[in-house]
Give the backbone structure.
Amino acid sequence: MIFVSLAVLLAVVVSNFVKVSYYSITPGQAESVAPLVQVKGLGTDAHRDRIMLTDVYLNPLTAFSWLTTQFDSHAQIIPAQDLLSPGSTELQLLNQGYIDMSNSKNFARLSALRALGWKVPVTTTGALVYDVGANTPAARAGLSIGDRIVAVNGVTVSSVCDLIGLTHSDPVGTKISLKVNPATISATGTISYSKISTKTVTTTRPPANEGPSSCANVTTAAKSFIGVQLQDVISFPLARTISIATPSIGGPSAGLAMTLAIMDRLSAGSLTGHRSIAATGTIDAFGNVGDVGGVAQKTVAVEDAGATIFIVPKGEVNDARSMANSSLRIIGVTTLRQVLRELRRLGGQAPVPYTKPYLLRATT
């Protein structure tokens, strides 16, 4: 009996260290955005409505934790392949989450300012590396997630399509000189940049599943391949006027909550009618609200935090309602304009900016 017990104990200990190809999503926390927002140079309201962002915990599973998670009604198990591209690491996934959060903050600032009446011009100032394929020319050249590519073979690039237009016709084996603003991403998600350096990438044959470019300036298939996924780097006036501290929080799903909190801070009155609300959903430059993950688990966190209203993307209302109790009202939306209309119906006030919007000039 002792030997059997020891064998069982050993099996449990071993299974707790053996990783499986699954992750769990479990309820995180809901917290007020207002204390995270700092504004310089614009008029702000002293009152702060309680507008909460909410997150989830994403954890890689071991054989043992996979088994125990089966009995957690608040947990969702997802295959690793749904999160990680082939050859990617957990660190790359984490850093992509921090890039998503950085982009989300930019779009929250932009959409909030525009909703308050500012005419905000946007420029693109380079191509940001969002993913680097394993064993690709880009990986061998030392490109990393977050790096900004600003020139190709001495020619300045201001967008992803600029870069693709300059390289898509290069034959296999071409050496491409890239001017790169290297990124460093801290363990808590702070992104910093060092001085521009040069990296040389030697192209290879495109993979068989490589799709066509969506760029209007590129009408033929690429002849070679460097192995990066890119995003435009955007810039706009007043971006640095509003800062949002989100240590150790990744992903784009706080975009809507941050947008509402910024608007509330920059305008008179109560945006929420003094209700305690939470929101989840991506936001883009035009105020469109997009789907996110883990809405059911976020609903649990929102209820624990005492919110009475939870605003979610329209397509995920059923996920939220599957976990909500009768005291939590779920509102599904597709745009920021719709959110503001719903809040007014609940007693909120139309936002009136403290600083009258004035002419903004494009940044370079």
Remarks:
- The first helix runs from residue 2 to 15.
- Residues 8-15 have pLDDT under 50 and may be disordered.
